[in-house]
Amino acid sequence: MNSNDWEIPNFSETSFSEKENTYCLCIPVINEGNKLLNELGEIKAQNLHNEIDIIICDGGSDDGSTEPKRLRELGVNTLLVKKDTGKLSAQLRMGYSYALKEGYQGIVTIDGNNKDNVDAISDFIEALNQGFDLVQGSRYIEGGKAINTPKIRHIAVKLIHIPIISFASGFNYTDTTNGYRAYSRNFLLDERVKPFRKVFDTYELLAYLSVRAPELGFKTTEIPVTREYPKTGKTPTKISFLKGNLDLLKILFNILLNKYDPER
After folding, report:
1. How far apart are CA 207 and CA 48, in angstroms?
2. Can you say how many angstroms the Cα of residue 38 is from the centroid of all Cα atoms in its chain?
3. What is a single cellular component term in the Gene Ontology annotation (predicted)?
4. Distances from the Cα of 115 to the Cαs of 39, 207, 228, 234, in angstroms?
5. Residue 139 falls within a domain, yes or no?
6. Residue 170 belongs to a domain with what CATH number?
7. Spatial separation of the C-alpha atoms in residues 54 and 71, rounded to whole Å
8. Verdict on whether the full-model pTM lies above 0.85
9. How confident is the model over 62-71, as pLDDT tens digits?
C-alpha cells in the first residue's frame, strides 16, 4: 500500500480503543445531534459494536453530539474531526484512508442521521466475508423498505440517478443514492480506482465508486435495507434543494464523461 500520493484533508484523531475487528463502520456526521446519539445507542443495544469497529468521521460538529466522553460510552472506537475544507467526500477520504492505514479489510458506511436500520450492519459484514467488493444497500429490492421518502426525492432517484449510474457502470442497480454500503480493502486500494484525490470533495465519491467497481469487474451486489424519513418536519439532508441538486446533476454528467477516472 503506497499512500504517499493520497490527498487527505487535515484532521485530528481521538482513539478510545485499539483495533479489535476485521471491518470498521465509518459514520460521516456534522451536527446530527440526538439522531447520531440514538443511532449509536441502537448499535450498542444490538451489540454490533463488538462485531465492527466504529469510526466517527466528523465534518466539524459544534452541537456537542461528538463529545468524546459520550462517544466512548456508546462504544465508538475512534473520532476523526476534519480540520480542512470539503464536504461529504472529504470526510469519507479522511475516514477511509485512516481505516486502510489501520489495516481494516473492509469498510461499511452508514449516515449518522438515524434513518437507516442498523441491524443490517451484520448483513454487510456477511457480504464482505463472502468476497464482495461493493455492497450497496437498497430500499427497492425484496426485503427493503422506503418509508416516508419525499416524493420529489423518490422520483429523482428512480428516473434520473439509478438509470444513469446503472448505464455508466453496467450493473443493474435498484438504489444508488443510499449511503448505506460497504467496500472491500482490495477495491479501494486498486490503482485503477484511486479514491484519495481532491476531485472528490462534495458528493462525487459515492457515485464514482458505484460505477467504478462493476466497471472494473469487482464483485458487486445489493442487500435489502430500510431507510425511514420523519413523518413530519424538515427532511434531514445536507443538500440544498436548488444548488445541491444542480451539483448532483453535474456529478452525474461528469460520471458519464469519465471525468473522475484516474489518469493512466
Report:
1. 27
2. 18
3. membrane
4. 9, 20, 5, 13
5. yes
6. 3.90.550.10
7. 10
8. yes
9. 999 999 999 9
Sheet holding 181-184, edge to edge: 11-15, 78-82, 53-58, 23-29, 106-109, 181-184, 134-138, 220-224
Scan for cell 458487486, then name that residue: 220
Residues 160-188, mean pLDDT to the nearest whole number = 98
- pLDDT tens by residue, 31-62: 999 999 999 999 999 999 999 999 999 999 99
Does residue 135 fall inside a structural domain? yes
Burial tier of 7 (Cβ tally within 10 Å: 0-12, 13-18, 19+): middle
Task: Answer yes or no: is 112 within a domain.
Answer: yes
Q: Locate cell 473492509: which residue?
A: 106
Buried b (16+ CB within 10 A) or exposed e, 15-48: ebeeeebbbbbbbbbbbbeebbbebbbebbeeeb
Q: Is residue 4 assigned to a domain?
A: no
Q: How many domains does the chain have?
A: 1
